[in-house]
Structures are given as structure tokens and as C-alpha cells.
Amino acid sequence: MTPVANNLLLIFGALLLLAAMAALWRIGARRSRARAYFVRRAVEDLGRGEFRASRPEEFTGGWAAVGGALTEAATKLAARVERLTDERDFSAAVLISMSEGVAVVDTRERILFANAAFAEAVGANDGCSGRPLLDVTRHTSLIEAVAGAFTTAETVRAEVEFGTVRPRTFALTAAPVTTTAARGVVLVLHDVTDIRRLERIRRDFVANVSHELRTPLTTIQGFAETLLGGALDDPSARRKFLEIIRDHAARLGRITDDLLKLSAIEGGSMTFHMEPVRLPQLIEHCIEAVSLRAKASGLAIEWHAPEALPLVRGDSLRLEEVLKNLLENAIQYTPAPGSIRVSAAVEGEHALLCVADTGIGIPSTDQQRIFERFYRVDVARSREAGGTGLGLSIAKHIVEAHQGRLWVESELGQGSRFYVSLPLCAPEPVTLQSEPGKSSGSTESVPQQHTEPTEKPV
Ligand code: ADP
Q1: Measuring from atom 8 of ligand 1, which residue has the nearest CA?
Q2: What is the C-alpha end-to-end distance of the chain, expressed in Å?
Q3: Is 378 in the pocket of ligand 1 (CB under 6 A)?
């Protein structure tokens, strides 16, 4: 072979080698682009929160380590995001289900978050989140508390009242909160309506008791001093004054007895001897006890109860106390020649006892309040009659301790009807002798149960 041919062969071989290398490089570059695409797509997926593991065919050879790292990163991120989501959902669920109203207000006084209790408290039934605070409420103390928390960066406390028909009182806390992302004020509304009501009742009660005790005490003291000052020597004045002292001492006794009874019921220390009670017998017994007073006041009392009235479950002495109180009130507040009618009937699973009078009636505004301690429509009239203003309050407690209900319907100048609803004993028919009094005297079958008396503390 000539040297020229040799050189040509070398050049041809070199060119062939170059072409092969170029082809290999192109193949390698195409594969690298494909891997780069897979890496980019995997990172974009992570950015979108799609934490999927890379597929094995996408990352082969030297890229397998990259694929593995991406899969591990995706798995860890998925776990962390899931944990954070769970924590966020849990916190949101806690806030949503809290009985306290909670809201977060940003620096532009826009509500970022508010739970249902907050919306209900401020009366925003269509929700609060995302709305300007002023759109939702214009309550001055609340707005000022938010502004104060922003300007002083300290917690502001206030008491606010929402609602007009059924006003509720809330203890408000406006606490500034600052995170790296935002600044705002967290509002918490805690309903203190019942606490304030109980505080008021206690205050009123102490004032009432002091007032009720002071009147007879002052009278007793005054007449005792008058006697000591010389009236003792005047026989007619002496007797009169001593009678006044005795009456007021008796009044003091009644008040303290009633107060002790009330406190025993409310403190849960009063025991109830529960047994099956026959209402007709109980009615007859109570009417007998007040009949002389009724006669003296020129009033007629009549009663009616079906012979086969089922038994109620209760403490007969306590129920007598309730009925006697209602009868005494009826006599007290019914001018002659009026009438009083007691009746009993079955209504569903209850016995309904009614004491109706044709007396002075009770103004509608007072009808709910007469069951409060010491509440009287006409204080002077009640005192004059020896009333303590505690009778109906005690009666209501006793009836409620029997799982019953006591209420009044009345029309001023027309009369009043006091109702007592008591649960019946579960029926269990046995043969009994009929009721004395109004009953016919024949043998009848009435439902009865629990002949053994039981005790039930309230
Ligand atoms: P009191 O010792 O004054 O009778 P109560 O608690 O028994 O106390 O009754 C409270 C008030 O309810 C009474 O002072 C009276 O104003 C009113 N009241 C109760 N029963 C009647 C009635 N039958 N008719 C009219 N008013 C009544």
C-alpha cells in the first residue's frame, strides 16, 4: 500500500471514530435531557404538594441515587404535611367546638376566623369570617377592646352584653397575638350570664332576708321598750303590746322555718319519703285543714277527683304542704263571697291538680315572679296576712323534686288557677277499696305500684 493510501485510511478511520463519538454524545445528551425533565417534573410535583415517589424507569444507572433522594424527600414531606394538616384540623375542630366565642381580627380589623359560638354571641347568624369587624358588631366596648389591644400590645378585659330580647353577658378578653406571618387580636367571649344572675339573686336574697327580719325585730324591740318605759303598769296596753310582740316573734319563727326549709331543699339535704300517693285522699285532707279559715272568710271550697284516679309517686307530707300553701293563698287572695275549686285529672303520664279561685288575680307581669323567693305582688297585704313570700318558692322546689311542674294561669280581677303536674306511678292493676269522701264506695280496680315507701334525697 502506498503512503498516500495509508494516510487516507487513517483519515477515514479518524472520521469514522469522530462520527461514532458524536452519535454517542447525542444519545447521551438526549438521555440527560430526559433525566433533567424527570427531575424538574418531580420537583414541580413537590412544589404543588403532590408527593409521589419517582418511578424506577425514570431514573436508571447513575441517576438512580437522584431518584432515590427525590422519593425520600417526597415521602418525608408528605408525612410532615400530613402531620401539620392533622394538627391544624385538630386546632380548628377545638376552636369550632368551644363553647366560648373565639375570633381573630387582623390589623385592618377584619375577622380572619370566628367560631360558631362567637357568631351566635354577636348575633351574626350568617357567619363572621372574612368580614370587617364593624360589619359584624358595633358594640363600643368590644371595638375599644380590640383597638386597645392593638395600641398597647397588652390584653384588654371587659364585660359586654349582647342581645335585646334575651340579653346575655360575656366576659371579653382581647389579647394581641404576633407571629412571623401576621399580627392580630384574639377575642374570647365567655358567657357569664348565669353567674351574674346568681350573684344578683344572692345579693337580693341577703337584702330581702335582712329587710324581712328587721321589720318584726324592730317592732318587738319597740314594744318591749314601751313596756319597760311604763306601759307595763297599764293592763290593757300591756296585753295589747305583748300580743303584738308574740305575733311578730311568731312571724320571725315562720320566716326562719321557711328559710331553713328552702336552704335544705336547695342544699339537697331534705329527704323525700317517696310512696304511692292517692290524690283524692290528699285533697280531702288538705281541704279539711283549711276549711275553718275558708268558712271564716266566707268562702266555699269544693273539690272533684275521679274515683279511679291513678296513684302518683311522691312524699305525701310534702305534697300536702304544697296543696295547703295553694289553698291558703287562694283563701287569702279571694274576697267573699268567692269560691275555691280543687280538681284532679289524668293528663298523659301525669296527674294534673288544679286549685282555682275567683279572687283578685295576678297581673301577667308578676305571674312568673311570684315563684321567686320573697316576691309578692302586694307586700303589705301579704305581711298583714302573715305571709313570708316564700311559700310558692318552697312549693315549686318540692314539686320539681317530684319531677313535676307548678305554674299559674291568672286574670286580674277574675281569679287564678294554680296547676301542679305530677308523674303517675307506673300502672300495675290491683283490686282496692274505693276512696272515702266523694267516691261511690264500690270496689274498683285502680293501677297501683310500690306499696313499700322509699326514701329519695333531693
Ligand atoms: P305569701 O306568703 O306572700 O303568700 P307566696 O310565695 O305563697 O307568699 O305567694 C307569693 C305571692 O303570690 C303572694 O304574695 C301574692 O301576691 C301572689 N299570690 C299567690 N297566690 C295567689 C292567689 N291565689 N291569688 C292572687 N295572688 C296570689
Answers
A1: 389
A2: 128
A3: yes
| d(C-alpha 357, C-alpha 331), whole Å | 8
- For residue 249, report the phi and psi dihedrals to the nearest 5 degrees: -65, -40
Phi-psi region of 268 (alpha: psi -120 to 50; beta: other; left: phi over 0): left
The confidence score (pLDDT) of residue 74 equals 83
Q: Shortest CA distance to 323 belongs to which of 248, 394, 229?
A: 394
| Cα(32)–Cα(444) distance, integer angstroms | 105
Ligand 1 within 6 A of CB of 333:
yes
**Banded model confidence at residue 366, pLDDT cuts 50, 70, 90:** very high
**By the 8 A CB rule, do 305 and 343 touch?**
yes
pTM across the whole model: 0.61
Instruction: Count the helices and strands in the chain (H runs, E runs).
Output: 11, 15
User: Is the CB of residue 360 below 6 angstroms from any atom belonging to ligand 1?
Assistant: yes
Q: Whose CA is nearest to atom 4 of ligand 1?
A: 387
The strand pairing partners of 326, in sequence order, are none
**Ligand 1 pocket residue status of 358, Cβ below 6 Å:** no
| 118 pLDDT above the threshold of 70 | yes
